[in-house]
Amino acid sequence: MGELWPVPDVLAYLAGRWRTERSVRDLAGGLEGRFEGLTSFDALDGGGLTGRESGAFTWQGVTRPAERTLRYEPGGGPGRVDVRFADGRPFHGLDLTSGHHVADHPCAADLYRGEFTVRGPDRWRTVWRVGGPAKDLLLTTDYLRETPDA
């Protein structure tokens, strides 16, 4: 996929609309699903961005609407943000100054480990590995910036 793309200002980089494609693999059961939609990063009152993801999730041949909202609040510098759930609970930190970041999020008995990789001005990827007593998942999401003409 090429070299890493350092991001000096993560909020400026994320702002806008991104085509979003996610594969979901249940490593224990061998099942696979897919999400396709859009993620819009819009200004958040008081600073930061609201990331709203909406689209369709297909699992075992059944397609349903899916959405989620996360908050991206200023962190310890322009290249860093604190990612929070819509209700304000902490999710993880994010530092893209090198173009790459690994974050952990413990959730009950499960551990979510996310790897964020920026590959250019208009594309980035997240890979979440979820492990625990009841989960063994791999979620890979590609983001491609939508141009104003799209």
Task: Describe the protein in words.
By secondary structure, the chain is mainly beta. The protein contains 1 helix and 10 strands; from the N terminus they run αββββββββββ. The mean pLDDT is 95. Strands 6-5-4-3-2-1-10-9-8-7 form a 10-stranded antiparallel beta sheet. 3% of the residues lie in helices and 65% in strands. Strand 1 and strand 2 (32-43) form a beta hairpin.
Helix content: under 10%
Give the strand line-up of the largest sheet: 6-5-4-3-2-1-10-9-8-7
Write down the secondary-structure element order: HEEEEEEEEEE
How far is it from the N-terminal to the C-terminal residue, by CA? 23 Å
**Segments where pLDDT lies below 50 for 5+ residues?**
none
Coarse morphology = globular
Report the β-strand fraction as a percent range.
over 45%
Structural class: mainly beta
- The quaternary organization reads as single chain
Can you give the mean pLDDT?
95
Tally of extended strands?
Answer: 10
Largest sheet composition: 10 strands, antiparallel
| Number of helices, counting only DSSP H or I runs of 4 residues or more | 1
Radius of gyration: 15 Å
